[in-house]
Amino acid sequence: MAAAAQPTSSNEDRPLLQVEGLRKHFPAGASRFRRNERFIHAVDDVNFTLGRGESLGLVGESGCGKTTTGKMLVRLIDPTDGHVIFDDGTGEPTDIATLRGKPLKEFRKHAQMIFQDPYESMNPRRTIFDTIAEPLQVQDIGTLVDRLDRVMEMLALVGLTPPRTFLFRYPHELSGGQRQRVAIARALIVEPSFVVADEPTSMLDVSVRTGVMQLMADLASGLGIGYLYITHDLAVARYMCSRIAVMYLGKIVEIGDTEEILRSPQHPYTQALLSAVPVPDPTVSREAVKIKGGVTTLINPPAQCRFYPRCPIADDYCETNDHPPLERKGQEQEVSCYKA
Amino acid sequence: MSGYPLLAVEDLTMHYQTRAGEVCAVDGVSLSLERGQSLGLVGESGCGKSSLALALLRLQPENAQILRGKVLLDGVDLVSLSEEEMRTYRWNRIAMVFQSAMNALDPVYRVGDQIIEALEQHSNAARQDMVDRVGELYKLVNLSPNFIQRYPHEYSGGMKQRAIIAMALACEPDLIIADEPTTALDVIVQDHILREFGNIRKELNMSMLYISHDMAVIAEVSDVVAVMYAGKIVEYGTAEEVFNKPIHPYTRALMSAFPSVTGEKHELATLGGEPPNPLDLPSGCHFHPRCPFATDMCAEQEPPTVRRGDHWADCWNPPED
Ligand SMILES: Nc1ncnc2c1ncn2[C@@H]1O[C@H](COP(=O)(O)OP(=O)(O)OP(=O)(O)O)[C@@H](O)[C@H]1O
Ligand SMILES: Nc1ncnc2c1ncn2[C@@H]1O[C@H](COP(=O)(O)OP(=O)(O)O)[C@@H](O)[C@H]1O
Ligand code: SF4
Ligand code: SF4
Ligand SMILES: [Mg+2]
Ligand SMILES: [Mg+2]
Question: How many domains is chain B built from?
Fold first, then answer.
């Protein structure tokens, strides 16, 4: 496990991931008679970097493309276009966007994904041992005895103790918090250097959630894992991520240091998102969110700023020009808006 | 009519029979709610919030039984009414918006027609009056009247939830019960819906029982707050008292585990252990295996009620601060 934590190669300051022009266009309603020219632009020209051992939060409303982005980065789905240069220091920098065959299988040892609902990603008829050992089995790593040792180690690591009492239970015999710990153990057993965590705590109750968040944060810093932490909850992102990227309809509209963005959001969408978060103090009354109701369709969207139809400060320039590029605004902040 | 609070619940207790045994989902709940007031009921999943809401409306499933207690609406005990009489209270006096209500719209009928159909069951008004009424209701919840004639799939999640709220308001109930009505929605849509509830409540001087697991939402919508754990109300008081001077260790734990986007970034407290197994509840105070203040007494006997004015909590060792 230490190998991933301490990159030893000379290009130590290269980022873990360098994402350039990443796109995913899903065909929308092709028919037998009509060639398909309509596409859902689920992820549209996304660019960012993720440092080794860093946690980047990806936040935004339902359907904006967070999961699709995450799945492309671990190659559960293929990008339509773009590059993802992966370099965890253990091998040569590789563009994993187009990998196939053996190199792709090798990459999967380094990159794992944890899902929102561990129920969906677990076979109810497999024991906890089988569930956690599955990635080892897929990668054909170790003998049965080795795997048993590793699974016991992982159970202890994620706080399911004593480990042997969990080995031969089934997913339905565990609580939600315990199941999410199993999902984390399964993702980490191959000692990945990159993990996409897709809303890993959103189904958990507050009293259990903090424990799982703490566990993930400790493992990230202890094992030097780089996380893409997907969440719609800005407050959770604040506790898990040093940087956040705000996504709106397939585009990253703002990215930077978490506290800086929370303190002074620059993009009108980030501002609306933040002002809509309820405050757990009955003496505070929030101002109404200044944002209009309309939405841009994701099917062949117009070239103009994606946020234009809902933007409270849009002007003619925004209407007639292309979607604005991400530009540095604050110290660490990049914003895609002509008027920010 | 006057003299009574709008709603007074006394010692309400409901059990479910399950193959694995008996689950006491609502355990001796007592509450009261004044006209125009909003009560926030907060607790984690499985603690019995939805079960309590169902019991208030006598909509509990077949395997459930109300064992004892009263639900007094303007002094009339709903528990002792016949089903026939109860029906005149639902929708007319007490309406509800449930957790998954937006999925309950029938995809093959226009939304407006579904609201009219619901109205027809509770009123003898002429068809045209009902159509006009739907128009008014749409205005009330900020939906464009153009959507009355459209089908559910043409609505976004937030619009469907507004339509459901419109339906619930159709008979101008005295009390609306909203069970996690925004849990599946994005924050910006949630903000709009919460404001809608606030405005409508003022306009119609309606009372509300708002159920959520989200402390922040509860802080925003409630005049008074009830905290539920393992079937019992463990703390009750005005929102300001409960949030600023919580008595019960569980309420304190919930609040310090709750991340916030505003203010200083405080350390999040971790509450040990797991939520209780409803089939095998801990003895004495149900919270004792997870409570940092627990003493031997807590495992042996049910805790007494500590009162600070109208604010109360059930606890043996209420921490002072
Ligand atoms: N396999 C697919 N085929 C067609 N469209 C898809 C597919 N997967 C996702 N989409 C569409 O792509 C867009 C982005 O979806 P995605 O699941 O990435 O959103 P998300 O940000 O993860 O949302 P949520 O917060 O609801 O999980 C949506 O419009 C969605 O309907
Ligand atoms: N129809 C049912 N049959 C048996 N048990 C039920 C039923 N509905 C809920 N329960 C149980 O009752 C308890 C309270 O559930 P519920 O009222 O849904 O909680 P909440 O709304 O607070 O999440 C839980 O233990 C739950 O499993
Ligand atoms: S570019 Fe224009 S439309 Fe887009 S967010 Fe900025 S101000 Fe609004
Ligand atoms: S009664 Fe005891 S266990 Fe229960 S909350 Fe109070 S101190 Fe904790
Ligand atoms: Mg998703
Ligand atoms: Mg419920």
Answer: 1
From B216, B240, B265, residue closest to A279, measured CB to CB: B216
Where in the sequence is the domain holding B68, given as residue range(s)? 7-314
Helix axis angle, A144-157 relative to A128-139, nearest 10°? 120
Interface of A with B (CB under 8 A): 61-62, 175, 177-178, 205-211, 213-214, 232-236, 238-239, 259, 262, 272-284, 286, 288-289, 291, 295
Give the separation between CA B142 and CA B196, rounded to whole angstroms: 8
Q: Which pair of structure tokens corresponds to residue A139?
A: 């990668």
* B44, A204 contact by CB (below 8 A): no
Interface TM-score (ipTM) > 0.90: no
- Residues B255 and B138: their CA atoms lie apart, in Å, by 37
Q: Minimal Cα–Cα distance from A232 to chain B, Å?
A: 8
Distance A83 CA to ligand 6 centre (A): 44
**Which of A174, A207, A236 to mutate to probe the B interface, most B CBs <10 Å?**
A207
**CATH number for B307:** 3.40.50.300
User: pLDDT (tens digit, 9 = 90+) per residue, B179-222?
Assistant: 998 887 889 888 988 988 898 899 889 999 999 999 999 999 99
Tell me the two tokens of residue A313: 């400060």
In a domain? residue B321: no
Q: Does B299 fall in a domain?
A: yes
Residue with tokens 């399950």: B18
The tokens for A146 are 């080795």
Q: Choose among A168, A335, A324, A314: nearest CA to A244.
A: A335
B81-94 pLDDT, tens digit per residue, is 999 999 999 989 99
